[in-house]
Design brief:
- Keywords: Signal.
- This is ABC transporter substrate-binding protein.
- InterPro entries: Solute-binding_3/MltF_N (IPR001638).
- This protein is an alpha/beta fold.
- It has 2 domains: 150 residues, D-Maltodextrin-Binding Protein, domain 2; 98 residues, Periplasmic binding protein-like II (D-Maltodextrin-Binding Protein, domain 2, 3-Layer(aba) Sandwich), CATH 3.40.190.
- Helix content is 31%, strand content 24%.
- Strand 8, helix 7 and strand 9 form a beta-alpha-beta unit.
- The longest helix is centred in the last third of the chain and has 16 residues.
Amino acid sequence: MSFTTRIKAIAAASVAAATLFSMAACGTSDSADSGSSDSSSKSSSTQGFDTSSIKKDDELAALLPDSVKSDGVLKVGTDTSYAPAEFLAEDGKTPVGFDVDLTKALAAEFGLKAENVTATFDSIIPSVGSKYDIGISSFTVTKERLEAVDFVTYFKAGSTYVVKKGNPSKIDSSDLCGKKVAVQTGTTQEEEVNKANDDCKAAGKSAIDVQSSKLQTDVTTAVASGKADIFYADTPVAGYAIKQTGDTLEALGEDVGVTPEAIAIKKGDTKTAEAMQKAVQKLMDDGTYKKILDTWGVSSGAVDKAEINPTVES
């Protein structure tokens, strides 16, 4: 595939980025079928893991408050531009990804139908408990976010810098002053780059040109097209973007700050938080969780314990 064709594929946000994400997922160094012989864990990348065999757990369902389960639907806010965690299939409408499969598995445990509602990343947390029952969209746990919502952990991921193959601009991620840095709006990576920008200004150096976009596809396109020098994103997302651009891009340096990712729940809704924690833990304990991650090649981000509001440093 030519460079021009790849850029056009990345930029297809107008059709929900479906063409960008039509190939197999590859968020980490894990192979897409590692660690499991179960046929359902080897589904195609856009089909994902088959959750149809998961049965309702009456004890778990009893824990979930009526405000969530009364309509028979688990409505989840999801930014579907963040492959391989959550993105749109070839039809440009159907949410897929390991977070989406996890959503379906959780809903099945509660005897509910999962409904992933596409939203911009920064709009989800403010709408949890009103527009959405929960939010599942690769949210890393931070002190700031813990002031707004409660969290139940289910994954871990670091952050990765990505540049053009060969790093032609000789970017040094430890000194981004004067550079053009692309990030997704509302992410922890945006926060970190903005802090770095403040440090540049305080030191009398050139400011960072922070290019914040609501869609990760636009962030990727910015670097691949030369609009930005470098982008900063969650490690699984960065690895997947590199593969999807035909190795036009490459990771720069080591992964930064591996932290937990979690389900966002309305602040103070202890019943839903407890129900979600127990449901996630059951999926971990019975092996379903690992099969879902194996399907998408991201099992290196697996954790063995679901926690409510873990202690974080920042």
